[in-house]
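ok trying again, last paste got cut off:
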Amino acid sequence: GNVKIKLMHQPYYLTPDADIVIYGHTHIPQSQLHGETLFLNPGESCARNKPVSQCAMLEIQEKKFLVTHYTKAKDKKKFKTQEFSFKRGKKSE
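nice, full thing came through this time. structure:
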């Protein structure tokens, strides 16, 4: 739906040249809007280096991005959630 997404592993070239930049490598969950670009890191899904599994779900709506980060400790059955909403559109000039 008219959305440009850039997917990369290492966050060395995090430039705002897409509507959404999804990256990994750091294993640190993050969702931040810089200008008109949403930068999203889902975290570490495999719980290899941390005692938790992490992932994220992105819902793209016409006027906003909805991000839900999920975290689950290895010994737990349920995920904890954290929700974020980011307004889409042209930045004010």
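cool. The longest strand covers residues 64-73. Residues 63 and 88 are 5 Å apart (CA to CA).
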